[in-house]
């Protein structure tokens, strides 16, 4: 296959995926459409995080905080904060707040770039983790601006498309959940294309150079300051858009909406999807959204011997037919989640993208050996 | 050379996604929530996360329903109670609640826990006309905004009402008392403080110092020290268990012995046992709190039939769980009231009839509540439990005193 042919195949697969995304809601329940909307949201955040961590090599444990900035930007622009004594009257339609949320989060990300220059590896991870930890308290501190611990409720407001009345768009009437699905996935696919475009050219090469060897990158004329800052900015802008959609889909923001665990889940998603690959991130997004839900429904008793369950630090009542059923096992879902994650890391250490890459290499090798 | 595998990889990803997604899509059939043999209820609970201790509320309710089901159910229907974990995160509460309503098709959302968490879904449930039954939170909003949100009703006395009772007690029994408050800096702490001030209004006593702490704080030592220096007669602790224990310990170290008012949130006997530092903490003695539930560790109720039943149910349907945990009793009290509602609805329950039944409760005696505490609602009364009993900490246990206190609406 010539490069041109492979590129055409790549575009064809992307187009097929777009078509698949477009028709999917016809085959699934209304509720499932909403669930898959969240997958799209996480995909956007993972794309951004992978630009930073997978391609530029800067670990961030604080992307939940950038999502929070995006989510709060949207919520405040929609509902305003005058009711808490703030200066913004709100009233902006939800879809228009999305790009603004991306810009605000992106600017914060850019601002974080210069200090990040002085930190590397684990130290940077800790510094970003600190933002994630501080964010909920910071939101509570500026109560007149953010509404404090009670948060901002958007459900039923006229600014939120579809929660009060069905959505009419392009001559079709969509249910609220279908509308959320199409909104999130349209943006997710655009974000995917944008990430691909950013990474394929000069900027992407510079990012990878910074990741592989900073010294080599500098000696080749790549400005570390410029590209690290840029990576932080782009990455945070993606997270901001994701956070904005998260707020819109959840119809609610408060400090607990963006807990520290969210930042960690995002990193888990990138690792499962595969650092330094884009297509695997889809599975990373499915993983972080569905695994916690799925593990709640698992029959832990059939998976583990009693002694293992009792050996955990969480007090687990082992009771005949009642306790073994999923949600009634305190800590059970967390155990299932942990086990699946450990297994995945053993089986596919390079994430799903790693599998694709390996298979791709095998196919390519066979082709070349045949043609030679 | 290097590009080729990457592009093939993209192609593979797309194909795999196309194959894998539909397999994961086995859809849930819409359930009306009521079948000839079952009633499906659902609610969120923090099974994991920082507030996992509260999960006992849902577990106690579940155990009670299971015991009712074992005895034949209500009008030949089993009550299925689906508990979904929200990790005490309101965004997850919203998703979980939508899952319960739209996918599992619950008849009513029941006993979901947390103030912000229930506020986050209140609009949604009311718009969909799904009952938000017996919210497990002490916010005043559930009862006070009943007209705007007719599908929502609370259960326990509100934090504000609790504060009012403390204030009225001090106003009635002390003269010119200087009251200091340690409170959690959120709706819950502020509601209690506002109630306390309302209860004190018009008396010679007043709040002279009120110091907040953040939930994320490490300890409350500096607040306690500042309050101690303020020459107080009454020290009100409006804090969750961890901070309440710290407050007792720090106060004792300063040899400070005011009258301590401890809120119900931290008044469970096991929390008090920790605060007592093995009996060495002398600040504890004489502490005041209020209660409406029967405490499973209180020797007063050792032979009480309801507490015997409680222990039997726990042994059969929640074996291994901590029987001393009073949150299980709360869960059983709310489940008991729900079973009674469904008994009244008979063979043909509807959501609207459930709500009108919930707004016309005259339950003289819920066996899991303290003797004399009644559950009553009316068309304009959205506060099911309004009577409380004051009690004092004496030699390692709570001793009730005086009659029941009625907390005025709002």
Major beta sheet summary of chain B: 5 strands, parallel
Can you summarize the main beta sheet of chain A? 2 strands, antiparallel
Rg of chain B, Cα atoms, Å: 24 Å
Shape of chain B: globular
pLDDT under 50 segments of chain B (min length 5)?
1-5, 15-31
Find the count of extended strands of chain B (DSSP E, 2+ residues).
Answer: 14
Average pLDDT taken over every residue of chain B: 86
Order of helices and strands of chain A: HHHHHHEEEHHHHEHHHHHHH
Q: What structural class do the secondary elements of chain A suggest?
A: mainly alpha
- Binned strand content of chain A: under 5%
Give the proportion of residues in helices of chain A: over 70%
The order of strands across the largest sheet of chain B is 2-1-3-4-5
Q: What assembly state would you assign to the polypeptide chains in this entry?
A: heterodimer
What is the helix tally of chain A? 17
What order do the strands of the largest sheet of chain A run in, or round the barrel if closed? 1-4
Unreliable stretches covering 5 or more consecutive residues of chain A: 301-328
- Which protein chains make the most extensive interface, counting residues with beta carbons within 8 Å of the other chain's beta carbons? A-B, 78 and 63 residues
**Total number of helical segments of chain B?**
13
What is the residue-averaged pLDDT of chain A? 83
Structure description:
The complex is a heterodimer of chains A (372) and B (410). A two-stranded antiparallel ribbon of chain A has the order 1-4. A two-stranded antiparallel ribbon of chain A has the order 2-3. With 372 residues, chain A is mostly helical. In chain A, helix 2 (30-55) packs parallel to helix 7 (176-200), helix 11 packs across helix 12 and helix 11 (260-273) runs parallel beside helix 17 (351-371). Chain A is 70% helix and 3% strand. Chain B contains 13 helices and 14 strands. Chain B has 410 residues and is α/β, with parallel strands linked by helices. Chain B has helices at residues 3-23, 55-70, 90-103, 115-128, 141-144, 159-173, 187-200, 221-228, 241-253, 269-275, 305-317, 326-345, 351-358, and strands at residues 38-45, 78-85, 108-110, 132-135, 152-154, 178-184, 206-213, 234-238, 259-262, 288-291, 362-363, 375-376, 387-394, 397-406. Chains A and B meet through helix 1, helix 2, helix 5, strand 4 and helix 12 of A and helix 1, helix 2, strand 2, helix 3 and helix 4 of B.
